[in-house]
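Researcher: Next sequence.
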Amino acid sequence: MTDVITQPAPTAAPAAPHFGLTKFRDPLRIPPLIRPHSWWHQDEITINMTAARVRLHSQLPATAVWTYEGQFPGPTIEVRSGKRLRVAWSNDIEGTIPLVGVRAPIGQAPANTPGYRSPDGGLPPGVEIIDGVADLPPWTVTHLHGALTNAGNDGWAHNATLSGHAQLTEYPNEQKSTTLWYHDHAMAVTRFNVHVGLTGMYLVRDREEDDLDLPGGDHEVPLILADRNLDTDPATGALTGQLLFKVPYLPGGAMIPFTGPFNLVNGVIWPHLDVDARWYRFRVLNAANARFFRLNLIDEEGRSHNDAVRIVGTDGGLLPAPAAMPSTGLVLAPSERADLLIDFSRFRGGNLRLTNANVPVGGPVEPDLMEFRVENRDRHDSFELPEKLAESYTRLDHDSPELADHDHLFVATVPPGTAGDAHPQMWELREITDNPPDEFPAAGIIQVTDPATGKVRTFEKVASLFDETTTFFVDHGRWAVWNLINLGGPAHPIHIHMSQFQLLTRRRYQVDQQNNVPGFDIAVGGTTAPLAVPGAGDPIQQHEEGWKDVFQLNPGEWLTVAGRFEGATGQFMYHCHILDHEDEGMMRPFVVHPPEVARFHVHPGGGHGEH
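Model: Next structure:
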């Protein structure tokens, strides 16, 4: 394994150290760019996955990782809309996964601190090595997140390959300018494979974007956000650079998803970026396993300057018009993307920090993500913020003609402990309003009051684990409205493969102090009586109106999202993008097939839902 990064000396006075590391010491690493349609005029490339050693910080020893093309994160692949690209994802990784997996009783050994061993090298009471992690082979399958591609190219979780084999894929790129990303999606071990480095960004360009003349070149920068933990030498307490997957667990055995004390941007812990006093474009991705980032731009006195930021795009591409950055910060859930413009001209000679406002100052986790150092000079900048962006954008609502005839799909997430299951679950629902059970609560039975009609509707759980029977089938070319309901527990970022969607409505039930919806009996796993019509949820903000493939489903929320399943067919996945939840069972398949074929397909579950 070879080092793939060397860090130059700092260019400004360093900040105070944290866990022995000096914040903002190292420059932001910019992933190399691969432009097959521009440089090489190719439509076929090979991306090699290899083991490597990288420095996450210049004060750390090198860290063993798994990479795409020897880079952490992987190269940014940039393509033109409408031009096909074939990629051979070649697995050339040797050895077992370079990760130490540890679990500790909640509250006894904080997961947001480095290290896990006692000074004598032993394990403190209750701390356990997660059995089997150290033995994991390089079994990988790459998913291009947000891509419109046939199912055979989508990175089906069971279709992972071992070292010495390649995954052959074809991406038509028949979609608008957008920010996609690629990452490992292997069944049951996605959280570990992504954690050790298998991520990268993928940009689609089109003429509509070109005509806007947005900041580009050195003034367009990817920002891939993540968090990690590191092991320590038990005798000295010094950080070793070894990646540490350290998670707390509850008395029932459920492990809480990983979050770590070290914030990384483009694979560097607390980096800095020297910027010109002009507009920049940042393609931001939350690639963390589970952490939600609330992005906030602040100066050296801690004052917020979110008014200098404009949001011009989200998961599925450009917004219809620039949107203001929320004054309280922009929340990005795992796998969400944001296309941001920042005007640095008003901060000449100053330093700004991008922070995570969800994290309190002074805790074990630093709120700081990175620092921007603005040059102290006037600079001519010809860029002017456009009033309109995506002229091709059309806003949907429940009365849109596109949705006059569509499928309804219902999915509910339920809290940990439901019917004795330690982890949160994702239930696929089938309507049984005409044949409800005689008594309530009943296991797997949910009754709701329809907000549109006021009528009580009864649903039963028909599947929750990935390998159970497929019950969602959608005709190719057809629109579908997904009803996503969170009956309690944590927030879940729900990702639906194959298409892009718009958020139509956000409603909310009242929740108790444990964030659970009263009326849902956790012990039984069913509602005691029909849930009332949910109240109005938080208003849909301007930056939430764009096309998206990930939606934050908060406790008590009922979201409706609409998308058209056109341009690709086959068996796809949808899941919670907290990777620990995904691996622990919160993932389900669905099928998109031609309607002419569907009439001959005999399958359980009642088919398409409601037409």
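Model: The chain has five helices and 42 strands. Residues 1-15, 606-611 have pLDDT under 50 and may be disordered.
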